[in-house]
Amino acid sequence: MTMNRFLTSLVVKFKAGHRSISTVSQQEWRRRGRMMTSSTEVAEKKKEKEKNQKGDNREVVKASDGTVVSSYWGVSRRNIKREDGSDWPWNCFMPWETYRSDTSIDLSKHHAPKTYLDKFAYRTVKILRFPTDIFFQRRYGCRAMMLETVAAVPGMVGGMLLHLRSLRKFQQSGGWIKALLEEAENERMHLMTMVELVQPKWYERLLVLAVQGVFFNAYFVLYVLSPKLAHRVVGYLEEEAIHSYTEYLKDIRNGKIENVPAPAISIDYWRLPKGATLEDVITVIRADEAHHRDVNHFASDVHYQGKELRKAPAPLGYR
Ligand SMILES: [Fe+2]
Ligand SMILES: [Fe+2]
């Protein structure tokens, strides 16, 4: 019994000792771990700081041609000049995207609605004109600015849908994707010009939000269901735009609206003379609208002939 008790006490002491050794070593390892973690963190933070400093340094490094390298990735813009040698001030468009609007275009052309769809498109546009006339009256600057927020939508929707179609069907687009996206960009530039002349009020911004939400989705669905009708609607909308800009010009010419100097962006975009005025700007915008009218009525006609747009040459190179 005595021997047994002795042996038992030895085993208990051994276990207790082992436990205390294990506990110490665990605590020690935890402590060392904490030290290692904190030293790793410090090293990582140091590395990150060095990396950021390097990045910062790279951001201010100039490329061999003198242009500032804008980021770590070396993405930079070339030093672009105007024809007269002055610096090109715009990032939103480049000199090779500018053009002289064809102001000799026939402004009076009209597509006479014959089919049921054409009549539907024509009447829809005429009905839409009523609330527009009531809301804006003869405030043509404001009217143009607001309507350009809508006018830039169809080209983008049509171009996007044709782009997706081209991908799905492994087919060329016949240049129509580019033509429609060009139209959207051109309309957006009309807006960028108008916004230099008229500052939208808060409730107008709110109205644009609501109208864009409805119009984008409605036009998307319409283009999927009937591109022939969608292009016809835009053709008639452009006819209305020509009418509105003609009224705008009348008010400028008879002095009701001040013929202020043209915004700088419009002088570069349409290659207007330095002393160009609002009248010159509205004249070139109206010519653009006439071109959009022809393109969209033409696109609708192509569909009426039972062809896909890619089978007809896209009206590229207008600019
Ligand atoms: Fe426009
Ligand atoms: Fe237009």
TrEMBL record:
It holds the Pfam family AOX. The keyword Iron applies. It is a multi-pass membrane protein. Homodimer; disulfide-linked. Transmembrane segments: none annotated. Its cofactor is Fe cation. The keyword Transit peptide applies. Belongs to the alternative oxidase family. Residues 25-57 are annotated as: Disordered. It catalyses: 2 a ubiquinol + O2 = 2 a ubiquinone + 2 H2O. Keywords: Electron transport, Iron, Membrane, Metal-binding, Mitochondrion, Mitochondrion inner membrane, Oxidoreductase, Respiratory chain, Transit peptide, Transmembrane, Transmembrane helix, Transport. Binds 2 iron ions per subunit. It comes from the Eukaryota. Residues 42-57 have a biased composition (Basic and acidic residues). GO terms for biological process: alternative respiration. This is Ubiquinol oxidase. InterPro entries: AOX, AOX_sf. CDD domains: AOX. Fe cation 1 binds at E148, E187, H190, E289. Its EC number is 1.10.3.11. One of its GO terms (molecular function) is alternative oxidase activity. One of its GO terms (cellular component) is respiratory chain complex. Fe cation 2 binds at E187, E238, E289, H292.
